From TrEMBL:
This is DNA-binding transcriptional repressor PuuR. GO terms for molecular function: DNA binding; DNA-binding transcription factor activity. Keywords: DNA-binding. GO terms for cellular component: cytosol. It comes from Flavimaricola marinus. InterPro entries: Cro/C1-type_HTH, Cupin_2, Lambda_DNA-bd_dom_sf, RmlC-like_jellyroll, RmlC_Cupin_sf, TransReg_Diox_bact_type. Coiled coil: none annotated. It comes from the Bacteria. Residues 27-81 form the HTH cro/C1-type domain. Transmembrane segments: none annotated. It holds the Pfam family HTH_3. SMART domains: HTH_XRE (SM00530).
């Protein structure tokens, strides 16, 4: 006889619990948006303050009738309480050595750009691209990059002097640089090679 490693009833209970919490957060958020107290919402709906508190804290499963009453009182569609729960959340897992080697504008010999993943078309409207950049002894200095969005650099190995606009920053392992990527930027002096750093670029999704 094969024993189930996972209890399907427990999984269902856990999913329901997550749904209750998600609905509770939405109810509270819409109430606060309207500067309404729990007592005021209780008067509008005929629900007790204790019941509303349980709903907002995800401690009880509200009936559809109750949710409909809350939606009417808050002037939102019933489906508004489920939106965040139903959102598709993406995750990209790239195994070591499996990143995509790419060429970017300004790439020179000895500059290696490895795209570690890509997430776009998400609910926040933000595109995110993480790169692992390696600079070797053969690298030559290139004109500074300029592109839209925000960039975060985390230094892993080596030492470089990194330019952002008119400022220079000495980056060593463990250092982070977070900046507006629309200004000219890039490694200006390669002080200790090889140098490796993570570059995470985020920018608004174009329509």
């Amino acid at each position: 006889m094969v024993k189930l490693k996972q209890d399907p009833h427990k999984q269902t209970e856990e999913r329901e619990k997550v749904l209750e919490v998600a609905i509770g957060r939405e109810v509270r958020a819409y109430r606060l948006q309207q500067a309404m107290t729990v007592a005021e919402l209780a008067n509008l709906t005929g629900l007790s303050i204790g019941m509303l508190s349980k709903i907002e804290n995800g401690n009880t499963s509200a009936s559809l009738t109750t949710l409909q009453t809350l939606a009417h009182a808050l002037s939102v569609p019933l489906t508004a309480f489920f939106r965040r729960f139903e959102e598709h959340r993406q995750a990209v897992h790239t195994k070591a050595g499996e990143g995509v080697e790419i060429e970017r504008q300004g790439t020179r010999a000895g500059h290696h750009y490895t795209l570690l993943g890509h997430i776009g078309a998400n609910a926040s409207g933000v595109m995110v691209e993480p790169y692992l950049i390696t600079l070797t002894a053969e690298s030559d200095i290139f004109p500074a990059f300029q592109h839209g969005g925000i960039e975060t650099i985390y230094m892993l190995e080596g030492e470089v002097v990194y330019r952002h606009s008119d400022s220079l920053y000495v980056l060593m392992p463990g250092d982070t640089l977070f900046f507006d990527a629309d200004a000219p930027h890039g490694p200006e002096v390669l002080q200790k090679l090889p140098a490796r750093y993570l570059s995470i670029i985020s920018y608004p999704q174009t329509p």
